[in-house]
């Protein structure tokens, strides 16, 4: 049972090296179990040699799993195996199926057995507890799609963490504002862009600022944003919040595996002991040590998942390690996500994440920008740019045109100096860029050019 400060004191305070060592000892049994569970896993894990899994280096013989593997396996689904060739539990044992949001391709489905569901609630509950949910919190969940990872999985976990769930996703803006006011909601869960957008709408709908409501904790994930100080400060000021907590996960693995404690130096890994996480160099594929300042790609293995397991799943999420100890008492590393491989762009020979451009822009003009911006592509598949990258940026209506021009010029110059890429920023009126409650992309392709 959780204490006032920790959800699972034994695991939350266990030395990180001991946690990983204990997890590595489970790998041989996991490989045997999955190889026996399905032909798909038997073929995928052929050649894996983990008789001695006492170190991360011994995992090198195990092939990575990718989103493409999952999609390919599900493309061959049968009536008896709706989750495809990598389904590892009988269909009759499934109690729930969720789907990826499909923002970067064909949706992938994930199944849960009763045991999986119980572990999900516990582990994701830990993430929400770490981020600030506990009895008697009244929590507004703004996701409007129950089947995605941020839907019913989050709803279950919020209740598990002790929160009173007010699932407002899918309601109209006026109705949602009224619900927040009438119920005295004190925790708001949504994306960074939606939290900013909705604070402005509260004033329009209720005739008073969002700071007059009871919301004092904002929990956000699903898109870059809450790791950027300027965005955090803006959201906190808009709501009068005393705490802004970032969370992150993947439906392929666990919808919330990282969460920010009150110290606020980054997100702790909250999914142990159910999930093993590695940090690798995305180019050499070698392991990167969990030390402050290290960067790498997170790779996950679901040690106990029965229905839809993954082994050494390449998340494409690039992490920056911000710490390895914390005043809160938790011993897992803290990180910030600095971008996804799927989002990475190439300007001539330089790689750049849209989130890095956004952070520089907000650092320069936060008080004059709405916070909404996006990269304009010629095609959905475009990654390379030989000309300056078009960046559309919403500028507040009260900023004079001459000041807008100077601001965008300054942003372009700082991006050039800091990231060594060239951009072509373009000013947009506030409200031009659509804002949703779940996962807003930082790139888009216009229907007509």
Provide structural commentary.
It is a single chain. This protein is α/β, with parallel strands linked by helices. The protein contains twelve helices and 20 strands. The protein has helices spanning 9-12, 16-24, 27-37, 39-44, 67-74, 114-131, 152-160, 173-183, 192-206, 229-239, 354-365, 401-419, and strands at residues 94-99, 109-113, 138-141, 164-167, 187-190, 217-220, 243-250, 254-260, 267-269, 275-280, 295-302, 313-323, 334-340, 345-347, 350-352, 369-376, 384-385, 389-395, 423-428, 443-444. It has an eleven-stranded mixed β-sheet, with helices on both faces. Strands 19-18-16-20 form a four-stranded mixed β-sheet, with helices on one face. The termini are far apart.
Uncertain regions: pLDDT < 50 for 5+ in a row?
none
Tell me the strand percentage band: 15-25%
Largest sheet: 11 strands, mixed
Q: What class, by secondary structure content? A: alpha/beta
Count of alpha and pi helical runs: 12
Strand order of the largest sheet: 4-3-5-6-7-8-9-13-12-11-10
What is the end-to-end distance?
56 Å
What is the mean predicted local confidence, pLDDT? 89
Shape: globular
Question: How many extended strands?
Answer: 20
Rg over CA atoms: 22 Å
Residue share in helix: 25-40%
Task: Describe the structure concisely.
This protein has 449 residues and is α/β, with parallel strands linked by helices. The chain has helices spanning 9-12, 16-24, 27-37, 39-44, 67-74, 114-131, 152-160, 173-183, 192-206, 229-239, 354-365, 401-419, and strands at 94-99, 109-113, 138-141, 164-167, 187-190, 217-220, 243-250, 254-260, 267-269, 275-280, 295-302, 313-323, 334-340, 345-347, 350-352, 369-376, 384-385, 389-395, 423-428, 443-444. The strands form 4 sheets. The chain has an 11-stranded mixed sheet with strand order 4-3-5-6-7-8-9-13-12-11-10, with helices on both faces. A 4-stranded mixed sheet has the order 19-18-16-20, with helices on one face. A 3-stranded mixed sheet has the order 15-14-17.
